[in-house]
Amino acid sequence: MDAKHDVLVIGAGCAGMRAAIEAFDAGADVAIISKIHPVRSHSGAAEGGINAALGNASEDDPEKHAFDTVKGSDYLGDQDAIEILCDEAPDDVYQLENWGAVFSRTDDGKIAQRPFGAAGEPRTAYAADITGHVLLQVLYEQLMKRDILVYDEWFAWKLVVDEDRCQGVIAWDLMNGGLKTVGAKTVILATGGAGRLYVGTTNAYACTGDGMTMALRAGVALKDMEMMQFHPTTLSPTGVLITEGCRGEGAYLLNSEGDRFLKRYAPNAMELASRDVISRAEQTEIDEGRGVDGSVLLDLRHLGAEKIIERLHGTRELAMTFALIDPIHDPIPVRPGAHYHMGGVDTDVWGKTSLEGLYAAGEVACVSVHGANRLGGNALMETITFGKRAGRHAAEWALANTTVTVPEGAVSDAERELRELLDRDEGERPWRIRDELATTMHENFGVFRREEQMQRQGEIVSRLRERYERVVVEDKGNVFNSDLTQALELGFLLELAECMVVSGLARKESRGAHARPYDYPERDDDNYMRHTLVTWEDGRPQLDWRDVTMTKWQPQERKY
Amino acid sequence: MPSEPTAAAASTNGALSPTMDVAVKIWRVDPETGERALKTYEVEAPEWVTLLDVLDIIKDRVDGTLAYRKSCRMMICGSCGMRMDGAAVLACKTRMADIVAAGHVPVISPMGNLPIVKDLVVDMGPFWSKMRAMKPWLQPGYEEPPEGKEYHVSQERMNVIHKEALCINCGCCVSECNSMESDPDFLGPAALAKGMRFVGDARDGADVERLEEYNSEHGIWDCTRCYFCNERCPKGVDPRDAIAKLGAESIKHGIDRDMGAKHAKWFVKSAETTGWLRETELVPKTQGVVSSIMQIKFAMGLARRGKVPPPFPPHVAADVKEARALRDIVQQQGREGALGHVQGERALSYIEHHTTAGNRHAPEITPGEEPVNRDVGERP
Predict the structure, then answer these.
(1) Is some CB atom of chain B closer than 8 A to the CB atom of A61?
(2) Nearest Cβ partner for A102 among B77, B132, B158
(3) Where are the beta strands (DSSP E) in A448-539?
(4) Residue A236 — pLDDT band, cuts 50, 70, 90?
(5) Of A275, A311, A335, A389, which residue is the catalytic one?
(6) Contact status, residue A68 vs residue A52, Cβ threshold 8 Å
(7) Is pLDDT at A262 greater than 50 in this prediction?
(8) Distance between first and last Cα of chain B
(9) Which of A279, A344, A373, B276 is the most exposed place for a label (fewest CB within 10 A)?
(10) Global confidence as pTM
(11) What does the domain layout of chain A look like in residue ranges?
(12) A529: number of CA atoms within 13 Å, CB side?
């Protein structure tokens, strides 16, 4: 064992850093492992804001926030978890502000809040259009203040499980090479999402579902994996995110006829309907020939130059750099793109998984507060509130338990597996498999889903997994071998794709992000107000179900 | 060269984007031996690709051992700082179409002022150490946030640190910092911009302690004001402006022991008394009497060649009243310290520059420099 800690956090985005800070403040010896430096984490790309019922822009309260979230989830969110999120959100946001987060301000100097999709009140606290960046910075500042140890650029690869307890992590040290073992009484997964399963995603290259697959391989269930959110405004052609904040500030979505087409899909909320609704509307427009080169248009022009520069500066910069369009003068071409995984590692409301000592928080986890569709602004809030809760619980448990053992076999098995991969000289380079996975997932498991396409995708993924067995890493060196880590990332993605297909086929209804207009166009509460749960047994995904937790909201028809 | 389209090239509705042939030269550095070689790569790529996309294609199809950092590919994570033709850029922000059209083959090398690890990867350790040396976390003042909620701060007051808060820690400014090249311990533009982010924050109560520290050796007055940091920053942070604001704040708080501060103060004094810079007094005011006496011989030499105007009688500028009026306005408006700082031209041109985003010309062509590698092999 190279090191030992009470609490080890894997991943250093908002959830990971918030968890580490909480565990540290609870008195635990805590360290973070991250394959990229903390401020490089993809939380920083969150633009629009963070939802909390502060009531700075209107009368608001946590119960309204909870109802919007329950409805937004298409009644697949667990209502006890949603109530916790919405109740704790305001104080958690105040704390971020007190730590120094540079929020935008109201006229009376309070945290500014803007309207966001499917929210009944202007509830999204923001820092211009760089909210995630600002939060990531403030959390890293607090990390430095506490001098919390970060194993920076260590690639976590395997969880160490001994005596039915998670007791550490085996990681590849990118800078120096070699496998390192870090023992821990509790491990918190905070590795984010898996958007790299898709071509045309908003997600960073780092978002390869590492934590989800590590948990799956350790015997933990993944929940609601079919629920991948497609964000309605991703920039053509690269897929980078154009914030929902644009629509929050009043931008229009237009088709090729210059028509605000949402009047036919969400006549009341229009551009501020929920993301699944708008993505389907856009895809329908595009499929029916009213798109513009495979996109629709996001029009900001009527907002005026001043507002665009002040509140949507980053968006303008993205549009100008990647699409050569200045939104002050021209509309931005956008289309739905894979953005956020509502599904993930099955946890309770303290981030605990079914494996003793293993926790998960943030996008990697599925508590579930987002159900079948996440509301914009709720992801950052989840990272903070559930990062905090996981950090606290993991620290308390670690401080009450003493031993950590890493069995010799775990390390030598990992060494052998790695050596086998590095020694292989004949075979296929990973990029073809990666690209085929991403294009076929987009085609066959996208905004709209058909039975036969999902089945075909299942076959495609199994063939890709067979090809992956013979994948070749060209770089055999020890120093910054990203060829190796990228190959391992592809391994993570392939297993997740298989879990998604199995879950998607099983859910024979349309709910939130899982839309089956051709065979099961309606939501079926009698049979499917249940979470899918996938575990990995004998190299195959196994499916199970669990009822949604309800507290006070009965399912209603969902209209915007 | 492989002719299959990349998944990136196949747009998601199935149509293929037009492609182009891209050539780049990359300084490869072997991490074990420190040996380096300039290699040329040619690949086919969609017309919209950035430098980062090109590196990806090379790594996938030509040479899997190529090393560089990347993550968000949308100018927010700060991973992919590197040099193109000797000047720092974010690879993900650098579109290739115009460069290809100009027939230019750019030279890609790692960032400067940081030890090279492998190929385009540098050791960011010194960067983060300097960042941490700024004690970059809010140290609340006496004021408690009302009702246990947020501090009440006007947007106007927050705007003071808006640009500094944009920093993504990519290191492009540090790469091009001339001061750091001669003094590797200079805190540097990124760390000092972070310092200004707290000094300028109305909620922070440790201004004076911070300024005292930033005024020490290797601090703000070591900046040579070459403005390369402002020039190369991909996010418009304008670190040099942040350093200037720290200087102004220091003087406002009476922290003026450094020669740099004394120098600056004399400029102001000189301008408001005679409206003219009085060089003969500048040296004693900045460096002190003893140092000035030691430089008399040099000064006489300058005077003989007509480089120093005679000190007496003092030359008073015709429009000195304007200079004084300006000083009065600054004082009346309470714009001493950072608030009196006039935003640099770079900041204004930033908005201007981008309105022609589509028509940017290829960067000026300069031969690629061989990367300087201070301490290969000394990495911990």
Answers:
(1) no
(2) B158
(3) 530-537
(4) confident
(5) A275
(6) no
(7) yes
(8) 39
(9) B276
(10) 0.93
(11) 238-336, 408-547
(12) 16
Backbone phi, psi, residue A440, to 5°:
-75, -35
Please spell the DSSP secondary structure of A173-236, one letter per residue: ETTT-SEEEEEEEEEEE-----GGGSSSBSS-TT-S-HHHHHHHHTTPPEE-TT-EEEEEEEET
The CA-atom distances, in angstroms, between A72 and each of A76, A511, A524, B252 are 9, 10, 16, 53
Chain B residue numbers touching A434 (CB-CB < 8 A): 7
- DSSP β-ladder status, A222-223 and A228-235: unpaired
pLDDT tens per residue, range A64-104: 999 999 999 999 999 999 999 999 999 999 999 999 999 99
Q: What are the CA-CA distances from residue A39 to residues A103, A147, B71, B85, B194 (Å)? A: 18, 15, 11, 27, 14
Residue B87, amino acid:
A
Q: How high does pLDDT run on average in chain A?
A: 96
Cis peptide before A368 (omega within 30 of 0): yes
Which ranges of A303-350 would DSSP assign to H, the alpha helix?
305-311, 313-322
What does DSSP assign to residue A337?
E
Distance (Å, whole) CA A50 – CA A379:
7
Sign of the torsion formed by the C-alpha atoms of A92, A96, A99 and A103? negative
Across-strand partners of A358?
A: A187
Indicate the average pLDDT of chain B: 85
Q: How far is Cα A491 from Cα A484, in angstroms, rounded to an integer?
A: 11
* Chain A contact probe: residue of B52, B77, B352 with most A CBs at under 10 A: B77
The arithmetic mean of pLDDT across residues B159-171, rounded, is 94
Residues A360, A215: contact at Cβ < 8 Å?
yes
Does the A408-547 domain belong in CATH 1.20.58.100?
Answer: yes
Number of other CB atoms surrounding residue A51 within 10 Å: 28
Which tokens is A543 given?
């499916």
Distance CA A151, CA B191 (A): 22
**Across residues B45-56, what is the average pLDDT?**
96
pLDDT: which is higher, B54 or B342: B54
Average pLDDT for A23-32: 98
Domains of chain B: 19-122 (3.10.20.30), 125-256 (1.10.1060.10), 259-332 (no CATH)
Non-local CB neighbours of A182 within 8 Å, separated by 6+ positions: A1, A2, A3, A4, A5, A8, A31, A33, A151, A168, A169, A171
Catalytic, A264? Answer no
| Calpha distance A95→A135 (Å, rounded) | 11
Rounded-to-integer distance, Cα B192 and Cα B214, Å: 8
CA distance B218 to B187: 6
Q: What architecture does CATH give domain A238-336?
A: Alpha-Beta Complex (3.90)
Residue type, B153: V
Banded pLDDT at B358 (limits 50, 70, 90): very low
DSSP-derived 3-state class of residue B81: strand
C-beta atoms of A294 and B15 within 8 A? yes
| A94 lies within 8 A of chain B by CB | yes
Q: What is the mean pLDDT of residues A22-50?
A: 97
- The closest of B26, B192, B42 to B116, measured between CA atoms, is B26
In whole angstroms, give the CA distance from residue A345 to residue B227: 49
What is the three-class DSSP state of B149?
Answer: coil
